[in-house]
Recover the amino acids of this structure.
């Protein structure tokens, strides 16, 4: 059967409507019958599938892996042997068995051909067991004879009817039949929410683990920046005339402002293809968009921890920050939170903003504004106008910078040249102890140390919740397009 029409005439919209992908639309007219039984709108998704125009597949997975994860998401309480047989049968049906172990590929690295990608997308839909009435199943001789006979009956009935009027008459006759065949709904044994999260996490990790260069960059991107900073600073001094305060303030400023940027870059580079796939597969009812989001967050957390640990270990001990293991642990925890917040903030924007360039620009702008308003290192918060002072409490940079300043300066003692310094030189020796700098720049920060630390980490679950809401909103936005 073919659906013909000019571009924009509604062919795809019709398919979206019948397959239940436009469930938020209310202005539908017409009826859908299967085997003479009328379907309710909420039942469309449970019965129909169709392959969209664009292929949305993870580039680094093999054909077999891609279909296996789809089968796992569609089936519950099925043995691995059953899943394998199901996938192997679909591979054989679509002549994909010979490329089962080849990666999908992309424009930048070679994989399977365009036609093979198309057949993989078809195979992913067939794994959900949709309304198959007009094709011959060649997986076994018995099924081939049965389905071939059925197709011949359909063809014969169609040939003996007039193209339009007799079809309508046949439909009306079927609707009046007393004993109607059942509606062939899709399988209802989909996995639990936790199982879907676990499957999605495994699939994401399996896909990205094959990008060796990408893994290396994710682990060492913060270190590369740390090498530049360490080479520029060399070693922190304790003499005020040699930049003891200025160098430490500059380093803290960089440690607060730079890690969120690497998190933003990761989210834009890695999550965009996952977002495209979740848009597609969520329409098929395999899972919800927010579940892909949570799976990605669980995936990137270990990489963030390792990357920031490498950076923190190098920069802390190389430039000579306060030599104490517990303070190093606090430094690492603050930089880690800042890095993760940057990635989560970008994920929030990716939920409601389609254009990745706008997302990246927006995330950079928000981070830059937070650095200016929240750190108090460009201008002390006490000297800021009241509106900016109020806004500073909404920035994670306020809490991270206060914690790092107290963590580094508390307990430090400074020198200021030699005993024979001139009056002009001595006038530059404002501080003799680090706590004096803390009280001048961040009054009361010493007593707020624990509170600031907890407030900083409160941003993490807060942004995760906002990101989930953002992708719930994305469901509504996409359904209305």
């Amino acid at each position: 059967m073919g659906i013909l029409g000019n571009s924009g005439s509604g062919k795809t919209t019709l398919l979206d409507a019948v397959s239940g992908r436009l469930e938020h639309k209310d202005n539908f007219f017409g009826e859908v019958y299967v085997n003479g039984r009328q379907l309710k709108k909420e039942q469309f998704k449970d019965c129909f599938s169709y392959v969209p125009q664009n292929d949305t597949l993870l580039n680094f997975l093999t054909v077999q892996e891609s279909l296996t994860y789809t089968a796992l998401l569609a089936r519950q309480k099925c043995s691995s042997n059953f899943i394998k047989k199901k996938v192997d049968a679909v591979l054989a049906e679509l002549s994909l068995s010979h490329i089962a172990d080849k990666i999908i590929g992309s424009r930048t690295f070679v994989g399977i051909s365009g036609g093979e990608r198309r057949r993989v997308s078809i195979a992913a839909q067939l794994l959900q067991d949709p309304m198959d009435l007009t094709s011959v199943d060649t997986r076994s001789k018995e099924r081939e004879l049965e389905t071939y006979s059925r197709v011949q009956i359909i063809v014969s009935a169609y040939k003996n009817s007039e193209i339009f009027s007799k079809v309508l008459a046949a439909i009306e006759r079927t609707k009046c039949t007393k004993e109607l065949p059942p509606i062939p709904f899709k399988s209802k044994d989909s996995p639990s929410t936790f199982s879907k999260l676990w499957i999605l996490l495994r699939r994401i990790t399996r896909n990205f683990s094959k990008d060796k260069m990408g893994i290396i960059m994710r682990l060492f991107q913060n270190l590369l920046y740390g090498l530049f900073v360490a080479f520029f600073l060399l070693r922190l001094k304790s003499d005020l005339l040699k930049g003891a305060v200025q160098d430490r303030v500059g380093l803290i400023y960089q440690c607060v402002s730079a890690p969120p940027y690497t998190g933003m870059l990761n989210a834009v580079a890695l999550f965009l293809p996952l977002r495209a796939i979740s848009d597609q597969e969520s329409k098929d009812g395999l899972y919800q968009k927010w579940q892909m989001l949570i799976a990605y967050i669980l995936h990137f957390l270990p990489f963030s921890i390792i990357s920031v640990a490498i950076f923190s270990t190098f920069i802390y001990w190389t430039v000579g920050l306060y030599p104490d293991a517990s303070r190093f642990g606090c430094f690492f925890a603050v930089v880690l939170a800042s890095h993760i917040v940057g990635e989560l903030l970008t994920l929030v924007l990716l939920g409601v903003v389609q254009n990745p360039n706008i997302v990246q620009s927006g995330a950079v702008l928000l981070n830059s504004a937070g650095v200016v308003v929240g750190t108090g290192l460009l201008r002390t918060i006490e000297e800021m106008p009241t509106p900016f002072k109020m806004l500073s409490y909404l920035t994670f940079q306020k809490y991270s910078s206060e914690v790092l300043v107290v963590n580094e300066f508390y307990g430090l003692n400074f020198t200021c040249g030699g005993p024979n310094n001139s009056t002009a030189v001595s006038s530059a020796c404002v501080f003799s102890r680090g706590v004096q700098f803390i009280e001048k720049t961040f009054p009361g920060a010493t007593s707020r140390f624990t509170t600031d630390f907890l407030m900083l980490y409160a941003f993490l679950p807060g942004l995760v919740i906002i990101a989930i809401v953002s992708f719930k909103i994305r469901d509504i936005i996409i359904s209305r397009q």
The two ends are 27 Å apart (CA to CA). The chain is about 60% helix and 0% strand.
